[in-house]
TrEMBL record:
InterPro entries: SBP. This is Extracellular solute-binding protein. Residues 1-33 form the signal peptide. The keyword Transmembrane does not apply. Belongs to the bacterial solute-binding protein 1 family. It comes from the Bacteria. It holds the Pfam family SBP_bac_8. It comes from Herbiconiux daphne. Keywords: Signal, Transport.
Length: 415
């Protein structure tokens, strides 16, 4: 399953990674891939390629090994598939600075692609024959940096509300909340001895809080780049109201990715989480719903993250073409669908998304949100500062009782 603490968390760069980026800025790329189309070759003469990824748990790890082994056989390629543990971003940067990047690497679309592409160490996949055919524009954009395709997305993540069906039935609630007002009312009704209405992430440490807060901001009409927007104020005020009502524990400021444990442990009736929850064993029946909006009838929106395969820039034309062909083979509809069903990821390909919903109907809210989802990577490094501002404002409003508007204004001034 997709264990969140192990995934490449959005915009969480360590000091080592930042230092590596500065070092990398002074390095030239190891070459430029050929601009000749890769053609339809399926035999690359036994060329040897190294592949890196950092998802070190099953079923993902075993599936990846199988996909690359099968594709390597089809293309007459010898592949060394390596799972890298530890600080993956820093290791990528260190490899880039020493001109020893692997031929292919699985990259987070929000941090690692922009960071490496901006330094000129990734190949432009277009001249290598790789296209984004079959991808929604929102998904294709995840693999781009400054309008150039540096990574082919294979899986994406967004978020939805999960709710305890039995708790809803016992409380006489027949439908999941569609607006902020309904969420506040339902959460009050659902709050009973030993159980809160909702459980959200609120700490400033592991990166979960801004990721789960972002859909509320977007669904309130807010602009992530503007913490003073009316939508941002409404979203922070939602958290404040839930805490003031006693529907959200004050302890939520200490919860990160583990906030979902309150829900799975029966201590909260509603939570926010991702598609990995679909493959996580749970002792009760739950429903999945889109995010509520500030105004009835509005379209909910979510943030979108993903993983994509990038190819190192290099002067060996045959190797670059082989790497591109291997990436395309790995990204097949069949492979993406299998990963989704077993591992709890949303496939990048629209056709595979449709197959995912057919096999796992609960995935529909995640898939439906993809076309209009927002990629915060377009904000560049500004998102590092912005997300801290949002978390600071949430904590100030809920812990200290400051109004949402003032809490946001103070957070902007302090950062």
């Amino acid at each position: 399953m997709a264990l969140i603490p192990k995934r490449a968390l959005p915009t969480t760069l360590t000091a080592v990674a930042v230092a590596g980026a500065l070092t990398l800025a002074g390095c030239s790329s190891s070459g430029t891939a050929s601009s000749t189309d890769s053609g339809s070759s399926t035999d690359f003469g036994g060329v040897k390629l190294t592949v890196w990824n950092n998802i070190d748990y099953d079923p993902y790890q075993s599936l990846q090994e199988k996909y690359f082994a099968d594709c390597a056989t089809q293309l007459n390629i010898e592949v060394d598939n390596q799972t890298i543990t530890g600080d993956y971003t820093s290791k990528l940067l260190q490899a880039a600075s020493s001109k020893s990047l692997p031929d292919i690497a699985l990259l987070s679309t929000d941090v690692q692609i922009p960071l490496l592409a901006s330094q000129g160490v990734l190949s432009d996949l277009g001249p290598l024959g790789v296209t984004t055919d079959g991808l929604e524009d929102s998904v294709a954009a995840l693999g781009q940096y400054e309008d150039t395709l540096y990574g082919l997305p294979v899986q994406v993540e967004d978020y939805a509300l999960f709710y305890d069906k039995a708790a809803f039935e016992a409380a006489g609630i027949t439908e999941p909340p569609a607006t902020f007002e309904e969420l506040e009312a339902d959460a009050r009704t659902l709050t009973q001895d030993g159980r809160y209405g909702v459980s959200f992430a609120g700490n400033a440490v592991d990166g979960a809080a801004p990721v789960y807060f972002l859909p509320f901001l977007l669904s309130a009409g807010g602009d992530p780049a503007d913490p003073t927007s009316d939508g941002a104020v409404a979203a922070v005020d939602l958290y404040k109201t839930l805490v003031d009502d006693g529907s959200l524990s004050k302890e939520f400021v200490n919860w990160g990715w583990d906030a979902t444990d309150q829900f799975t442990g029966g201590k909260a009736a509603i939570t926010v989480t991702g598609p990995w929850q679909l493959v996580t064993p749970t002792d009760f029946d739950y429903g999945i719903a889109p995010f509520p909006t500030l105004t009835a009838g509005e379209e909910p929106k979510v943030g979108l993250l993903g993983y994509a395969y990038g190819v190192a820039a290099q002067s060996d034309e045959n190797k670059a073409k082989a790497a591109a062909a291997l990436v395309e083979c790995r990204a097949s509809e069949e492979n993406q669908l299998e990963t989704a069903v077993q591992g709890g990821y949303i496939p990048a390909l629209t056709s595979a998304q449709e197959g995912f919903v057919e096999q796992v109907p609960g995935a529909a809210p995640f898939v439906d949100a993809v076309p209009t989802a927002v990629n915060t990577a377009t904000l560049g490094t500004d998102w590092n500062t912005l997300q801290q501002q949002y978390v600071t404002a949430i904590q100030n409003a809920t812990v200290n009782g400051v109004s949402a508007k003032d809490a946001l204004a103070e957070a902007v001034k302090s950062q």
